[in-house]
Amino acid sequence: MGAVSTYTFSNVTANHTISASFKADTTKYTLTINRSGSGTGTVSNNPSGLSFARGTVVTLTATPDAGSSFVGWSGGCSGTTPTCTVTMSANVIVTATFNLVSGGRPDITITSPSGGETLSAGSTWTIVWEATPDIVKFDLSYLNGLTWRSIARGVTGSRYQWQIPALARNLERCKVRIVGYNVKGKKIASAKSIGTFAIKVVKLTSLNGGQEVVAGSSQTIQWTTYAVTHDAPRVRFSYTLDGGRKWKKIKGFVENAGKFIWTVPVTEETHTECKVRVILETGHGVKVGSDESESFFRIRPAS
Question: How many domains, in total, are found in the chain?
Fold first, then answer.
């Protein structure tokens, strides 16, 4: 009957025998553990490792070093208890924050973004930090490639809604910097986000990983274009069957309409490390940004 999940017998006039075949789900997801803050500590996970099968429950335990305290979790975990659990149904990024408990010096700790995030140009993101009480105002900036650009000045409190600007291209290694001032306006502390994050102008939203598709079938590739500082009217596509070691073009450029029907290549064997990539271009063919499947999908031969 082929790859169908249901089958109905009608007008049964004799005995019939039917069998069903099942394949194990081999999808795996990556757990990334970051540490931030002015202090130090370790994070252990049980079961150990960095790559886990779909549905695996992983327990994380934060242990501060001497002179430090555990502040809390962000990203895939939340809360302030030293232990948390995550269920691996996608790639997960978790950050544990440790702060110094001695010294009494002015200090700032950025908790969001903490590293590993992908932000969208033109969207908003909440920057969150902690600071000692003697710091009353803050200047915020972000690293745009090699240049620090201002986000806001004279901010009070411990969070700020950042309106991310339109960009000319993807930015892959961004950081946030916060400078703190006392009541007299004197600079007394500064901090940068520990890890880097990305800001993208294009995002792949379908065939993003975990699917099984049939060779020769028609599949919809969808993407979203975010705030770009100039026109980006066309896109190109490519795919890989071997985990990214070799990429093949799908066709020439097409209009940036957010959707494209792809005829999956014919193959006589199953490929388990497949991805697609969308590349955003100007009208002159200059690359603006790109995005690819977050995890692998599978292509199997037609029955």
Answer: 2
The partner residues of 263 in beta bridges, in order of sequence, read 218
Q: CB-hemisphere CA count at 13 Å for 98?
A: 19
Tell me the C-alpha distance between 39 and 98, whole Å: 5
Question: Do 187 and 275 sit in the same domain of this protein?
Answer: no
Beta strands in 54-115 (DSSP E): 57-64, 68-75, 83-87, 92-100, 108-112
We report the CATH number of the domain holding residue 271 as 2.60.40.10
Which tokens is 204 given?
A: 């792949």
Residues 46 and 62 sit within 8 Å (Cβ to Cβ): no
**pLDDT tens for residues 87-106?**
999 999 999 998 876 555 77
Q: For 101-196, list the strands marked E by DSSP.
A: 108-112, 118-120, 124-131, 137-144, 147-155, 159-163, 171-174, 176-181, 187-192
Give me 273's structure tokens.
């490390």
Q: How confident is the model at residue 30 (pLDDT cuts 50, 70, 90)?
A: very high
Query: In angstroms, what CA-CA distances link 130 with 99, 178, 296?
Result: 10, 11, 38
Tokens read off for 303: 């029955």
* Reported pTM: 0.59
Written as six digits, the tokens of 241 are: 């069957």
Mean pLDDT to the nearest integer, 292-298? 94
| Structural domain that includes position 237 | 202-300
As a whole number of angstroms, the distance between CA 226 and CA 200 comes to 8
Q: Is residue 112 part of a domain?
A: yes
Question: Is residue 265 in a domain?
Answer: yes
- Which residue is listed with tokens 């000045």? 153
